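Researcher: Go.
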Amino acid sequence: MPPKSSLPRRAAKSPTLRKIAVLIAIVLAYQIWLSVQAQGKVGPGVGAARDDRGRFPVDVELGFAPERYHILRLQMHGRIAGTDGHVVHLRGVAPAGVDELARWYWIKHIEAPKSES
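Model: Structure:
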């Protein structure tokens, strides 16, 4: 009777499980990259002018003119107050919304508005 190999050894030899492990590693690496690059996107002064509900206005800079998709996604975190070229003005954004926005790869920068409108 041949010796039985252990479960981890058989799993390591399985091509399907190796592919799943590689896929999980890629997804984890992408999530780590999103978290690291999000740290430098939020400018100073964001969240300084909070209202009584703890929400505040932000200006979201994109690397391109926003399209309908981007506007709809941004509306999930605040009210659209207008656009200027590549900048979308959001009002009523929560701190958790800023954290979520900073993780989106297509957002270049998030700043406090220069003047209240």
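Model: The helical segments are 7-13, 15-38, 68-74, 95-103.
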